[in-house]
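Homework help board

Subject: predicted structure for assignment chain

Our instructor gave us this sequence and asked us to write out the predicted structure in token form, then describe one feature. I got the tokens but I'm not sure how to describe them. Can anyone check?
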Amino acid sequence: MPEKRKYLRLAVKGNIALHPESDPAQTFKGELVDVGFSGLGAIFKELIETDLIVQFKCEIKIEFKTGNVKIPFSGKGIIVNVRDMIKNNIRSYRCGLKFIDMEKEIITRLLNSIQSEMNRQKRQMQKKKYL
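My token output:
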């Protein structure tokens, strides 16, 4: 099946919290899977309905042997797809969130900072190899 996405996706780790606009007191907590120009993917233990508009807060963690980097990121999005998953006999839900009302420049800077940090860490690892 061909890839539907038109933009680069970066595999990431980190935490995410969703707050539905219809009920801001409710919180869904999950783990980030990837982030791209138009949205992000995350795994949740609770079923989240599609077309739900949410405010999100996440912390992207980039882990390397030389150290960890944390990048906070927040905004507004809509749940566009939910896929049921079972791993190690534990049910979870893979959700796709599409960004809403977010400046493309902010997203571009986020992706660039993640990529540059990954590249910097790779260069450090290569230098240590040759020393």
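Reply (TA_rk): Your tokens look well-formed. For the description, you could write something like this. The first helix runs from residue 104 to 130. That's the kind of observation they're looking for.
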